[in-house]
Specification:
The protein has 201 residues and is mostly beta strands. It has one domain: Jelly Rolls (Sandwich), CATH 2.60.120. The chain contains 2 helices and 13 strands. The strands form 3 sheets. A 7-stranded antiparallel sheet has the order 1-2-11-8-13-6-3, with helices on one face. The two termini are 26 Å apart. The structure holds succinic acid and manganese (II) ion. The site of succinic acid has 11 residues, from strand 8, strand 9, strand 12 and strand 13.
Length: 201
């Protein structure tokens, strides 16, 4: 397997894994996903809307409201989640292999959006990695350890970069501190898309 460009507290990062044409094709696929299953703002446990808007593709979609974080098998409107685009599955195959993901969470960040430090722990088996794909504006990605108070390191993720949280870093705390607005021309009206692929069950 190709060696990552860098690792950050055990998280592997491949800079520029996707070229511009691949990124554009992916954005077209994701526009189709979002037109079938529109973006929505999940509520935090405290009942506040998250600054990131989301939708999903695959058998399961990630969801959150006052009753907590979980996976649901339909979009909140009742429509089925669209299938995960083939090009996305191919990226998983190249870097993770093994069982294919059954959720592709699509996060849309507008220039003010951020994501607080958290662990991805709503899945059944942490032996499967989490793969994350960045498209659009640069984002400051912070990675810590297995405890919230562990020291963190940060890197700017750019359009086309891919990160994998696996092995000892599968449950690493991570988050997005901020975007660098207008740093990419990929998305006509700016912002950032992040895809996270996970095996849920
Ligand atoms: C996430 O942790 O769900 C998103 C990470 C990112 O946006 O890069
Ligand atoms: Mn996460």
């Amino acid at each position: 397997m190709t060696e990552p460009t860098l690792t950050l507290n055990g998280v592997s990062i491949w800079k520029g894994w996707l070229n511009r044409a691949d990124q554009e094709a992916l954005v077209a696929d994701l526009r189709a996903v979002a037109s079938a299953a529109p973006l929505f703002s999940p509520l935090t446990g405290a009942g506040r809307p998250m600054s990131v808007r989301m939708t999903s593709a695959g058998r399961f979609g990630w969801y959150s409201d006052r009753s907590g974080y979980r996976y649901i098998d339909r979009h909140p409107s009742g429509v089925a989640w669209p299938p995960i685009p083939k090009a996305v599955l191919m990226i998983w195959d190249s870097l993770c292999g093994g069982r294919p993901p059954d959720c592709c969470l699509v996060n849309f960040y507008d220039p003010q959006a951020r994501m607080g430090l958290h662990q991805d722990r709503d899945e059944a088996d942490f032996a499967h990695p989490v793969l994350s794909i960045s498209l659009g504006d640069d984002a400051l990605f912070r990675v810590g350890g297995l405890a919230r108070t562990d020291p963190t390191r940060s890197v700017w993720l750019q359009s086309g970069d891919v990160a994998v949280l696996g092995g000892a870093a599968r449950l690493a705390f991570h988050g997005i501190d901020r975007l660098r607005p207008n740093s990419s021309t990929l998305l006509g009206s700016g912002g950032r898309i992040n895809l996270t692929l996970r095996v849920v069950t």
